Amino acid sequence: MTDLRQLRHFVAVAEHGHFARAAAAINLSQPALSRSIQALEANLGCNLFDRGARNITLTAHGQLVLEHARRLLAGSRALHNAVSQLGNLQAGELRLGAGPYPAARLIPIALGELARRYPKVRVQLLIEDWASLRRRLLNENIELFVADCRELRDDPLLSVEPLRVRPMLFFCRPGHPLLALAEPSAADIAAYSLAATQLPEDGARRLQETLGREPLPDIQCDNFMVLKELVRQSDVISFAPEDVLTSALVGGELATLPPREVLPRKGSAYGLVSRAGHSLSPAAQALRALIFAGDVVAQ
């Protein structure tokens, strides 16, 4: 019978592509790791790896087993977390994701309060685009995420809870040539490189229609801190929700570009996303409540 230990060993080898590196990563001798993989192959009745002189690759059976192994291990981890968290969240682990904009303000506020209330809960936060976070959620690598949910609202596999809409602003560095214009037009703005995070399909289309050129953005980056520094150090422009820009605007690091009406969308479309039909762990429930509480306070 296949056990979780063998599956962990198999995933380690698959991810490292090398027995010696995998053995070192999981603190196991290479002969012991090889025996574990051989036992797993014998139990399943198939070869999981094509073994070359210098590296190894997954067989078709190996690819299938890897997909299921990751889900089984994630399920085992979720069960362990749920049991360990039962009773005042004195232990356990929470894995969540966030898009670049929620990760810049909303999520840090909620996580800070979670850490204050439940200091023994370990948290792993992944900051990625909404499409990548969806894949991680369905593969059970994370339990929930907050990101742009425009492309996710009709997905039957997901539970999407919309959050408050935040006004979007174009921003640039202080002293940018566009600031000398009383009311920069779409054509004026389109003359400069535009940096942004990954956009939903409809958002990218409307932005291209508004500025009259494509493809956009010219520079795609899903790290808001990098985007902000890029804009601060150059004539590149970008746009973001008003709440994540507030401190930089007040401190004079950045400036906004009027008029707001040039923007191709009314505002942000954050949503809290989890798997449909799956209950959240106690830690995830606590964080969800804090996110919604922070979302109301920020109005």
**What is the helix tally?**
11
Radius of gyration: 23 Å
Question: Which assembly state applies to the chains in this document?
Answer: single chain
Q: Which outline best applies? A: elongated
Structural category is alpha/beta
Distance between the termini: 55 Å
Judging by the overall fold, what is the CATH architecture of the largest domain? 3-Layer(aba) Sandwich
Major sheet characteristics: 5 strands, mixed
Uncertain segments? none
DSSP strand tally: 12
Order of SSEs: HHHEEHEHEHEEEHEHEHEHEEH
- What is the residue-averaged pLDDT? 86
The amount of beta strand, in percent, is: 15-25%
Number of domains: 3
Helical fraction equals 40-55%
Stated plainly, the CATH topology of the largest domain is called D-Maltodextrin-Binding Protein, domain 2
User: Which CATH class of the largest domain?
Assistant: Alpha Beta
Walk me through the structure.
This protein is α/β, with parallel strands linked by helices. The chain has 3 domains: 4-78, Winged helix-like DNA-binding domain superfamily/Winged helix DNA-binding domain (Arc Repressor Mutant, subunit A); 86-162 and 269-297, Periplasmic binding protein-like II (D-Maltodextrin-Binding Protein, domain 2, 3-Layer(aba) Sandwich), CATH 3.40.190.10; 168-262, D-Maltodextrin-Binding Protein, domain 2, CATH 3.40.190.10. It has helices at 4-16, 19-25, 30-44, 60-85, 106-117, 130-138, 186-190, 201-211, 224-232, 242-250, 282-297; strands spanning 49-51, 56-58, 93-98, 122-127, 144-148, 158-162, 168-172, 194-196, 219-220, 237-241, 255-257, 270-275. The chain has a 5-stranded mixed β-sheet. α1 packs across α4 (60-85). It is elongated, with a radius of gyration of 23 Å. The model has no long low-confidence stretch (mean pLDDT 86).
